[in-house]
Amino acid sequence: MADTSSIWLDVPAPAKLNLMLHITGRRPDGYHNLQTVFQFLDYGDTLSFRARDDGQLTLEPAVDGVPFEDNLIVRAARLLQQKAGKHAGADIRLKKILPMGGGLGGGSSDAATTLLALNTMWQLNLSLDELAAIGLTLGADVPVFVRGEAAFAEGVGEVLTPLPELEERWFVVVCPQVHVNTAKIFSHEGLTRNTDPINIRTALRQGGRNDCQQVVTMLYPEIGKALNLLNKFSHAKMTGTGACIFSSFGSETEAISVSEQLPAEYVAFTAKGVNQSPAHKVLFRPS
Predict the structure, then answer these.
(1) pLDDT in tens for each of the 287 residues of the chain?
(2) DSSP 50-113
(3) Are the C-beta atoms of residues 23 and 191 closer than 8 Å to each other?
(4) Three-state SS for 192?
(5) What is the CATH code of the structural domain delimited by 1-287?
(6) Pairing of strands 89-95, 57-60
(7) Can you tell me the distance from the alpha carbon of 257 to that of 270, in angstroms, rounded to the nearest whole number?
(8) Omega before 61 cis (within 30°)?
């Protein structure tokens, strides 16, 4: 019998881009109704899992400034432990490359990968619907990572319509070294909150804008400066509430060429947009 204590399961936690983000209204509970298009990138964090039978959870390395029990990875694991029984435990390692607060969904993706991987490792057999419902309690972006399909999202981002026909282009992503306070953006009096809803066909044909971008660039001039720079090569947009911005290109060669022309002070990477999550490709590949 194999020694399961030495077997590690490595699973990607991919970045996402909001290819558009329209805010269509503000709800009585203070949250905002929105419309957005999510697409994954073949770039992101990596989580490694090893099962334990003593009910203990470990996570390394520790994340500076984030208490262990507040980490979304640990919170996700705790929610599944409630269904797995007292003996289910795991050692978890995180290889973190996505910036925190960049609008790339790093924390939400880490939480979703944890739900998906431990559901498999602990043989819970929860459906994606059940995992997505658990994920929604952790954050509005978690369900799209759980379901693993590029999607048109409505509501607070949890009402998802898959978009398998979305073009898989190459992107240059620039990450200005500022941390955007999401709550500050969504509470700002200058934020556009009355964009007319559109349908999926219009979103795919016309693209759309990011309604947060004007307020963010006013409050964080460094992001506006990066947008102006990237706009010289191809139309640039912000993802989520920032700080990261992106432009799309038709080939890897073109994306790399643009990335190499950016000033050295900019942190940037190239990646391909993909319509199936890399986490799903690992966990649900044919045996």
Answers:
(1) 334 457 999 999 999 999 999 999 998 888 899 999 999 999 999 999 999 999 999 999 998 889 999 999 999 999 999 999 889 999 999 999 999 889 999 999 999 999 999 999 999 999 999 999 999 999 999 999 999 999 999 998 889 999 999 999 999 999 999 999 989 999 999 999 999 999 999 999 988 999 999 999 999 999 999 999 999 999 999 999 999 999 999 999 999 999 999 999 999 999 999 999 999 999 998 75
(2) EEESSS-EEEESPPTT--GGGSHHHHHHHHHHHHH-TT-EEEEEEE--SPTTSSS-HHHHHHHH
(3) yes
(4) coil
(5) 3.30.230.10
(6) parallel
(7) 10
(8) yes
H helices present in the chain, as ranges: 72-84, 106-121, 128-136, 142-147, 182-186, 200-206, 213-219, 221-231, 252-261, 278-283
Domain boundaries, the chain: 1-287
pTM as predicted: 0.94
Catalytic residues: 16, 141
CB 26 within 8 A of CB 33: yes
What backbone phi and psi angles, to 5 degrees, belong to 64?
A: -55, 130
Helix axes 72-84, 106-121, angle to 10 degrees: 20
